[in-house]
Each structure stands twice: as C-alpha cells, then as structure tokens.
C-alpha cells in the first residue's frame, strides 16, 4: 500500500474550511458581543464597588483621625494624664463631631481609665465612664457636665471592678508598640458589631504612659448595603479576610448570641447558598460562579485600611443581567452556527475515518501499562508514512526503555530506602533540643498547635506551664557554663520523668521550659508541678541548689485561645512567681 504524506490530509480540509471563513467571522462577532456584555456587567459591579469603597473609608476615617490627634496631644503634653477628669470635655466634644463614634478613651499605666461613651443605636446619648472617681479600678457611669467633665453618677449603671491594663485594647497596643486594630465583636447588649483602634503613649525614655483608643459601631455600614438599589438577585457583602461578615445586603444576622458564647456570621456558614459558594474563593478577582444552575459574575476586591488592615468587598450579580444583551442577536446567529458546525463535523468525520483508526491504536498502546503493547503493534500500521514512522520510533523506544527499566528499578529501591532513613534522622534533629533531648521551639510549636486544634475541635482542655531556673545567670557566672549545662540537663531529666505525666515537655529557650497537660484537672496539675519543683531542687548539680518558678494557665480560662495568648498569660503568671520571691507556683 502506497504511503500518503500526512500534510496533504491536513492541507485539503483547511482549504475547504477556508470557504467557510465568512460564516466563521459571523460567529466570532457573537463572541465579541458576549465580551461586551461581560464588560457592561463588570462596569456595573465596579460602580457599586466604588460607592462601597468610598463609604467605608469615609466612615472609618474619624476612627483614625481622633486616635492620631489624641496620641499627638498626650505625647507632647504628658502632664495632662496626671488628672484625667478635664479630658472628659475633650472626649465629649470629639464624640459630638462624629455620630458613629461609640467610645473615645484613655487608660494610664497605673490603671486609671476615662471614656466618653455613646449609645451605638440611639445616637446622641452621651455619657462618661471612669474607674477612679470614687474607688480605684472601680468602673462607674457619670452624666456629662460641661464645666467639670464628670457630672453626677448614673445610679442605674452597674458598678464593677475594671482594670484596663488587662483588656485587649490595651494589651494589643503594647504588643504592636503602635496603632492596633481591635477584634470585631458585638457590643454588649446591642444588636451591632463594633471595631476600634488603640495606640500606646510613651515618654521620652520609652516608658509606657497610657493607651488611648477609639471605637465605633458598624451598624451604619450594614444599613448602607441594605439600602443600595441593586439589580434583582444581586448580593453585596463586606467581610474580613477570613470570611467573617461585617455587613451584607441580606437580612441574615451578623452574629448569634447564646448564654455561653457569641458567634460571628461567616460566609461559609451562611443560610444563603450563593454566599456560601462565594466563600470558597476570597482572593482578589473577577470570575464566574455557578450555583444551582444559576450563573453569577463574582467580584472580590480588598479595602486597604490604615495600619495594615484589609477588608473585602464582595459583589455578585446574576449573569442574566448582562447576558440578556445577547438575546436578540443570538437568534440570528443560530442558523449560521449550525451550518458551520455541520460542515466542520462532516470534514472531521472524513479525516477521522482515514487517520483516526491507526492513531487510536497508537494511543491505546502508548497509554497501556505494559511496553509490550507498543512492541506488538502491527507493521505497517497505516498507509500514512508519518504514522508508520511514528509507530516504528515508538517500538524502538519501547525496546530501549524495557532494558533500562530492568536495571533502574533496583537502583530506585535502594535510593528510596536511603533517603527515607536520612529524612527520619533530619526530622528528629530539627525538632529536638541538642543539649536536653527535649522538644525545641519548633517541636513545641507543632505540638502546641495540635493541642490548640484539639481544644477548638474536640473541646479537649489543657493546662500550659512555663517555668525557668531561678538565678540561672548567677549559676553560669559563678560556676561556669559547663555547670549551667549540667543544671539544664538535670532539670530536663526531671521534667520529662514519666512520674509526672506531662503530654508535652519542651525547652522554650535558655533556661525556660514548657509543660502541657491535656485533659487533666487543674488541681492535679498543681500537685504534679509541686512535686516537679521539689524533685528539681533535690536533683542539684554538684551540690548546687536548683530552684524553679512556675506559671500555669488553663486554656478554658482564656477568651481567645491561640499560641500567643496562651504563652502571654503563662508569662504573666511566671512573672508573678518571680516577683513573689521565686521557687513558687502561680496559677
């Protein structure tokens, strides 16, 4: 059988298809119209996004403006912090300028607190709050007096102990050492979310003098989205980067309160299936989204707020809005499209009849698991010379590969076993402290993250203990680092003793160690730590007394359980142990 060059079989159909070029152009014009329609939908989305973007920035601007003004004032004139009462007039006047402002406050390093508060729902109702007027660290409400600042006490308001230095707005600002955003949470007793900023005030020596803060209710943003005149079945939302909702055009609640907890509404848990689908991709993009056979144009865009904070604007409009522009034009293109596809299909069937069968044989042989499928191909395979050449080349390659694979398999097995041994050794090295044999910082992070996940997902409570050797620097200075290392090794041996049953034992750094007890009663932990402390003291190095101080914290006693919050609370307890004379346990 005479071989036919493949190029002739390719050229001939395309010559025929060239006759249909005019009809094809008509088809491409339909695509152009589709792109135009999509552009119209995108322009509509961006117009809505621009309105929301401007509204959010204008709405939040006073939050940043006031805190910057107060930071500058207190930094330049720190003496005004000696007597907070006159500042009540300042805070009240600032709050009057911005109805959305709910709190403007200052908390000094010695625990005094003053705030102007405004009802987040019933705007214009201003009062003052202070924790120093009658009793130190005792919060009371006062009417505003334009002369004295603090007027008469509001007898209907509750009186309670209040130390601002342990509140998130204060600790967050000191942690950041700069302006910090508060976590968005519902206002107590009000159906609205709130957000705030706080910033530390330092003296010339870098010592903390105070923290000033501002806060506002976000109900106006939610009302604004609900007031937008959108096309039918369109959705708009503002959310945090993790999908927690801030405002939405829908009627669903933004948070749910139970007697034991408050839960923020999130896109992925929304009652609305469209919003749930949108939660799967919160990256900046314009894309198409299909929900129950309904197509949407989905647009997500970030709002860059001051101080490294980002919110997201999400807009979804039904594709029917912009695709309706094609309805009239589509009817006239159906007949042309049908003819074009029929012609292409007929010519394609002719090509498939002539070259399809041998190509299918090659395809099945090439995709078969055994090289013998290629080696057993019939010769000649086709009347097309290029296909025959390809078949012979594949058979030659199969023969060569068969020989190579025969020798390569054993080498791969040997190399795999060697690499596995090296990986196991490397993993153990990276997670273990060389001196003590305990988990190092990296190993602790992995183990503690797992314990925190179990706490959140399985309600598996745990006790976190941080401890260090008392006067360890003095041991190194007086007896040398070799003795110091012996002390560390002795303490490590004591801490990891199975008699005390800690689930995690790690060297946190220097002379600091960490123990984690999972699903153990707090009193049992304290008893175990007492025995640990006594055992470590008895396990002296070279007759050198070794005492230790401990700080304990139970995960369920913390509002927000993260690695940072657990360590921070335990450090505070350890610091109290040190201040109490060392060789003690603070719970």
TrEMBL record:
It holds the Pfam family dCache_1. One of its GO terms (molecular function) is diguanylate cyclase activity. Gene3D superfamilies: 3.30.70.270, 6.10.340.10, PAS domain. It is found in: Cell membrane. It catalyses: 2 GTP = 3',3'-c-di-GMP + 2 diphosphate. The chain crosses the membrane at residues 6-28, 334-355. The keyword Metal-binding does not apply. Residues 460-587 form the GGDEF domain. The keyword Transferase applies. Signal peptide: none annotated. PROSITE patterns: GGDEF. Keywords: Cell membrane, Membrane, Nucleotidyltransferase, Transferase, Transmembrane, Transmembrane helix. It is a multi-pass membrane protein. Its EC number is 2.7.7.65. Its main location: membrane. It is an enzyme of class 2 (transferase). PANTHER family: DIGUANYLATE CYCLASE DGCM-RELATED, REGULATORY COMPONENTS OF SENSORY TRANSDUCTION SYSTEM. This is diguanylate cyclase.
């Amino acid at each position: 059988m005479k071989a036919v060059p493949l190029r002739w079989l390719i050229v001939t159909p395309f010559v025929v298809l060239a006759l249909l070029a005019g009809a094809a152009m008509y088809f491409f014009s339909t695509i152009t119209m589709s792109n135009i329609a999509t552009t119209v939908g995108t322009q509509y989305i961006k117009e809505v996004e621009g309105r929301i973007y401007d509204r959010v920035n204008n709405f939040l601007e006073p939050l940043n403006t006031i805190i910057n003004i107060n930071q500058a004032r207190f930094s330049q004139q720190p003496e005004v912090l000696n007597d907070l009462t006159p500042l009540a007039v300042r805070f009240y006047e600032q709050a009057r300028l911005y109805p959305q402002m709910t709190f403007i406050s200052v908390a000094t390093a010695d625990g005094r607190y003053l705030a102007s508060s405004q009802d987040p729902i019933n705007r214009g109702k201003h009062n003052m709050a202070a924790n120093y007027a009658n009793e130190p660290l005792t919060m009371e409400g006062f009417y505003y007096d334009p002369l004295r600042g603090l007027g008469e006490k509001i007898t209907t308001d509750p009186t309670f102990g209040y130390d601002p230095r342990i509140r998130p707005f204060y600790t967050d600002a000191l942690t950041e050492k700069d302006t910090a955003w508060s976590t968005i949470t519902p206002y107590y007793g009000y159906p609205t979310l709130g957000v705030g900023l706080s910033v530390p005030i330092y003296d010339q020596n870098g010592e903390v003098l105070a923290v000033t803060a501002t806060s506002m209710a976000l109900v106006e943003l939610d009302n604004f989205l609900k007031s937008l005149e959108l096309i039918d079945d369109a959705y708009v939302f503002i959310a945090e980067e993790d999908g927690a909702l801030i405002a939405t055009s829908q009627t669903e609640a933004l948070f749910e309160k139970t007697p034991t907890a408050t839960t923020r509404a999130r896109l992925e848990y929304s009652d609305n299936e469209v919003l749930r689908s949108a939660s799967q991709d919160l990256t900046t993009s314009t894309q198409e989204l299909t929900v129950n056979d309904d197509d949407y144009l989905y647009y997500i865009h970030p709002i860059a707020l001051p101080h490294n904070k980002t919110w997201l604007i999400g807009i979804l409009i039904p594709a029917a809005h912009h695709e309706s522009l094609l309805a009239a034009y589509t009817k006239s293109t159906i007949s042309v499209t049908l003819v074009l596809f029929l012609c292409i299909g007929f010519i394609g069937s002719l090509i498939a009849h002539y070259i399809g069968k041998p190509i299918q044989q090659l395809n099945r042989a090439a995709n078969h698991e055994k090289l013998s499928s290629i080696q057993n191909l019939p010769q000649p395979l086709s009347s097309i010379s290029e296909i025959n050449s390809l078949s012979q080349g594949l058979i030659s390659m199969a023969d060569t590969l068969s020989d190579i694979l025969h020798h390569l398999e054993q080498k791969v097995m040997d190399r795999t076993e060697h690499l596995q041994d090296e990986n196991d050794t490397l993993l153990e090295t990276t997670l273990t402290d060389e001196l003590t044999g305990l988990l190092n910082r990296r190993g602790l992070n992995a183990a503690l993250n797992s314990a925190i996940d179990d706490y959140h997902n399985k309600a598996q409570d745990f006790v976190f203990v941080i401890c260090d050797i008392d006067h360890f620097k003095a041991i190194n200075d007086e007896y040398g680092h070799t003795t110091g290392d012996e002390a560390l090794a002795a303490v490590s041996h004591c801490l990891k003793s199975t008699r005390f049953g800690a689930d995690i034992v790690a060297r946190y750094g220097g002379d600091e160690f960490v123990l984690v007890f999972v699903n153990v009663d707090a009193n049992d932990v304290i008893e175990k730590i007492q025995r640990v402390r006594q055992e470590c003291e008895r396990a002296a190095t070279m007759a050198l007394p070794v005492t230790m101080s401990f700080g304990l914290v139970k995960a369920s006693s913390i509002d927000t359980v993260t690695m940072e919050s657990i360590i921070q609370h335990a450090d505070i307890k350890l610091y109290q142990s040190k201040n109490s004379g060392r060789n003690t346990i603070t719970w």
